[in-house]
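Shape is hard to put into words, and the shape of a protein is harder than most. The fold becomes a row of whole numbers, each drawn from a learned catalogue of backbone shapes. The outcome of that step, for a single protein, is printed below.
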Amino acid sequence: MKLNWRVVVPLLVWLVLVLIPVPEGLQQHSWWYFATFAAVIVGVILEPIPAAAIGLIGVTFATAMRYVNANASQALSWALSGFSNSVVWLIFAAFVFSIGYSKTGLGRRIALWLVQKLGSNTLGLGYAITLADLVLAPGTPSNTARSAGTIYPVIRNIPALYGSEPGATARKIGSYIMWTAFAATCITSSMFITSLAPNAAALQFVKTATKLDVSWTQWFLGFLPIGVVLLILTPLLVYWLYPPEIKTSKEIPVWASQELAKMGKVTKQEWIMAALIVLAIFLWITGSNKDITLPYFGSQFIDATTVALVGIALMIVTRIVTWEDILGNRTAWNILVWFATLVTLADGLNRVGFIGWFAKLASAPLKGLDPILAMALLVALFFFIHYLFASLTAHTTAVLPVVLAVGVAIPGIPPLMFSLLCVYALGLMGVISPYATGPAPVYYGSGYIAPGDFWKLGLIFGIIFCAALLIIGIPYLSMVKL
């Protein structure tokens, strides 16, 4: 039987690290735990088997070896701790919301309506696509489901109206549409905690490293000026840097109108779904506001995860989704196990003392620099090292805890500002390569963007997005009190 190299490489990583002498300052069990963690991350990147299974195997092995806790029952409690983590359930709940978008047809209707209203010229079409993604983002934690699953099936019908097909005629209009849609979803992925699956998990790492709790409102307000600027500029920048040959698109609103006519009037289920999304966003904003006090509940009267669970309950009661729909959503359950195990594994790094040891080692060369400069360099490193990863989740789990620990260890770096800049980078960095985030392979494989163009545009927009994050984010977060 021929061994799969994707299986062999993670095992070799584990074996090599185990055989290396334990570095000074670490205990043996801490180093062996890191070897297990590193093997899991390499496995998640290569995916010889599903990533969730790799995480489960890693947690099980570390528990059986009692790396984190010598007591068997306490080791098991640690192994299962990720499944009681509220942010993990927030991610799961938001995936259920995306079922409602899809099943009711609300997501497709919103996208078509915006195309109908704004699609009379190519630049307006770019803004319509961007707005459609933005509207769907708060309730769709998978940018793959949002962009590749909802936006792409709508916009892929547009280029053919102008004889723009993959290949020689792609630049007529198809290339512009596809890159704008891809770049836009990377921006909206950083706009809300609930617009990208790793966002909520990232906040758990922030809490572990800095003891700070970041609310839904803090996240949104902190990224707002960065997001608004990028959402306004991106369709225009694509129009200048990767211009379409066709500047007007009068047929597109007609086509969108025809598609909307086929859908018929807004259904009762769509109205209910829209109301539930508005209610959830309202509660996410107000529920974590310390300035709002209610009788009996007091301040911060409802947690973000509780809001999502209430939303699911109401969706079931109103028959927007059925329990069978939820049970049948393999992606949601897979994500639940995946993130629960990865959050647990990252927590283990901190418990065995590895994070503190590495942070002290890595922060030493940066301590002589200006704190703001050191912070900017760390955020930029965190951003562009994503070229080495094919998964935002793997990048978040492997790199974020370490970068946070390094930054917190440098005197003068504001922990909240630094943490927010790092977590905001997660969605934005998805633009840099054809494998950087879930929707990337879909747009890369559409045939409308030449491979060389995809890499070139990824670098250009990666630099633009990172620069906007630092140039707008640092002064803004320095002035406001979140």
